[in-house]
UniProtKB/TrEMBL annotation:
<feature type="coiled-coil region">
    <location>
        <begin position="303"/>
        <end position="330"/>
    </location>
</feature>
<dbReference type="Pfam" id="PF00239">
    <property type="entry name" value="Resolvase"/>
</dbReference>
<dbReference type="GO" id="GO:0000150">
    <property type="term" value="F:DNA strand exchange activity"/>
</dbReference>
<dbReference type="InterPro" id="IPR050639">
    <property type="entry name" value="SSR_resolvase"/>
</dbReference>
<dbReference type="InterPro" id="IPR038109">
    <property type="entry name" value="DNA_bind_recomb_sf"/>
</dbReference>
<dbReference type="Pfam" id="PF07508">
    <property type="entry name" value="Recombinase"/>
</dbReference>
<dbReference type="GO" id="GO:0003677">
    <property type="term" value="F:DNA binding"/>
</dbReference>
<dbReference type="InterPro" id="IPR011109">
    <property type="entry name" value="DNA_bind_recombinase_dom"/>
</dbReference>
<dbReference type="InterPro" id="IPR006119">
    <property type="entry name" value="Resolv_N"/>
</dbReference>
<keyword id="KW-0233">DNA recombination</keyword>
<feature type="domain" description="Recombinase">
    <location>
        <begin position="96"/>
        <end position="209"/>
    </location>
</feature>
<protein>
    <recommendedName>
        <fullName>Recombinase domain-containing protein</fullName>
    </recommendedName>
</protein>
<dbReference type="InterPro" id="IPR036162">
    <property type="entry name" value="Resolvase-like_N_sf"/>
</dbReference>
<keyword id="KW-0175">Coiled coil</keyword>
<keyword id="KW-0238">DNA-binding</keyword>
Length: 472
């Protein structure tokens, strides 16, 4: 409007009310001044008392302030309303694809809830299931999902970048994120946390476990603890100047209100030290053999289950194929008219195609089970290597096996608190610390300190399992 009025040939600018021209008093006065400069008269239809008289200008000034006040008051009410909704466990924004915003309130008092889209919801679940098999790239999956009936918001084919956003959105397993806040939501999840994590693992495999630079997530958040105040450390970025170049580094620090200078530790260095700490651990050959036996049982059970499912689907397909052949014979004999044949034949072909896809998906589960077992065996054989090659979300799962807490004091790690499961494994000599395998520096080192008690007793050797590792 100002651009057009600047030409000097517009006599009057009309609005319904003054709040239609601006809801900020400074914008309002600027626009009025510009219109005056261009020789354009401003008229608010519902406020005819505004004119160039002293009284009219006073009223205009008052209305500009009232409009700004009303806008800010409404904004505050909306923020409080959204915050209240969040606190109640409801997502205060637009639902992602697969869900709908449904109003369950009244006309006077709307109450929007997020519910599963009856059409897109099951397809989103299907999307996660297919990607978890590891047999689809994002481009392949985008084509397949569009064929199954999952378009983007405006009906266009869904793109691979949208699929990537869906597959990394924690909302689908029930975990909400909004305005730097996180919590479990009231909405019904479309996938399980296990399926979601499996998709993250497959995505990491597709990019050869290339770890991207983390922006706002930190690997050890929730693990590192201040040894003095017993507070879990938070993590944040800091801007620093090094050699006249400004850069950003991240630190873990204690959340004690009075401060805690000794808790500040560099995130990368600390994460590297934690990774190095895992070099000390190794599983016993006996334990690895137990894992192998259990893996064989799981794989055998999986094969039987998959074979049974595939056989059932194959039988269904065979019955439909016979039905299709009979239908074609009826058409040839003239018993069935063309329209009835086309309708029934199309339906049968669709059902056969669905079963064929289902068989492929079930068969692909074999490969998925093997990958999971491969990961488990890899961890048991080489803890450090498996950990360092894993993506961050999987590293956190591994850390939960070993540590309940990592304690920081005087800007360094002073203690690793083991989990109960690791303590039990160590007590039963299924997990050993490598440093205690080394001979002592004295002239008469104790023999076979790490052997199984029953073995050492049978061989007549001494057995004193002493943990001399610092911080444990």
């Amino acid at each position: 409007m100002l651009e057009r009025c600047s030409r000097g040939d517009i006599a009057i600018a009309l609005t319904i009310d003054t709040d239609r021209i601006a809801r900020n008093e400074w914008d309002h006065f600027y626009i009025r001044k510009e219109l005056e400069k261009f020789g354009t008269k401003y008229i608010a239809i519902n406020q005819p008392m505004i004119d160039d008289s002293p009284e009219g200008r006073l009223i205009d000034t008052m209305l500009a302030g009232i409009n700004a006040f009303q806008s800010r008051l409404t904004g505050r009410k909306v923020k409080l309303s959204l915050q209240r909704k969040w606190e109640q466990g409801d997502y205060p924004s637009w639902a992602p694809l697969g869900y709908l915003n449904v109003d369950r309130g009244t006309k006077e008092k709307p109450d929007k809830k997020i519910e599963i889209d009856p059409v897109a919801g099951p397809l989103i679940t299907r999307l996660f299931e297919l990607y978890a098999t590891g047999n689809y790239s994002l481009l392949q999956l985008a084509k397949k999902m569009y064929g199954l009936g999952l378009p983007a918001r405006k009906g266009k084919p869904i793109c691979d970048s949208t699929l990537q956003q869906i597959l990394t959105n924690t909302f689908y397993y029930g975990w909400m994120r909004w305005n730097s806040l996180e919590k479990q939501g009231n909405h019904k999840p479309l996938v399980t946390k296990q399926l979601f994590d499996q998709c993250q693992y497959i995505a990491a495999q597709h990019r050869q476990f290339l770890i991207r630079v983390r922006k706002h997530t930190f690997l050890l958040r929730g693990f590192v603890i201040c040894n003095i105040h017993q507070h879990r450390l938070t993590a944040e970025w800091h801007k620093v100047i090094r050699s006249q170049h400004r850069t950003k580094i991240s630190y873990y620090r204690c959340t004690n209100p009075s401060g805690c200078k000794g808790s500040y530790v560099d995130t990368e260095k600390t994460e590297h030290q934690v990774a190095e700490s895992l070099k000390r651990y190794e599983f016993s050959e006996e334990f690895i053999e137990l894992v192998k036996e259990e893996a064989k049982k799981q794989l055998s059970g999986s094969r039987e289950r998959i074979s049974s499912t595939v056989q059932g689907l194959t039988n269904q397909k065979k019955a439909l194929t016979q039905k299709r052949d009979s239908l074609e014979d009826l058409l040839v004999d003239g018993t069935l008219d063309k329209e009835s044949y086309a309708r029934q034949h199309t339906k049968i072909i669709e059902e056969i195609s669905f079963l064929e896809n289902k068989i492929v998906d079930v068969e692909s589960q074999r490969g998925l089970d093997v990958k999971l077992i491969e990961e488990i065996l890899s961890l048991s054989r080489n803890i450090y290597k498996t950990y360092t090659q894993a993506p961050d979300f999987l590293k956190r799962h591994y850390l939960r096996i070993f540590y309940e807490g990592i304690y920081i004091k005087d800007k360094k790690i002073v203690k690793f608190a083991e989990t109960p499961i690791l303590s039990e494994l160590r007590k039963s000599y299924q997990v050993r610390i490598k440093s205690i395998l080394l001979p002592r520096r004295d002239s008469n080192p104790e023999p076979c300190r790490y052997k199984n008690p029953s073995v050492t007793k049978r061989l007549g050797l001494s057995h004193h399992p002493v943990n001399r590792e610092p911080g444990i």
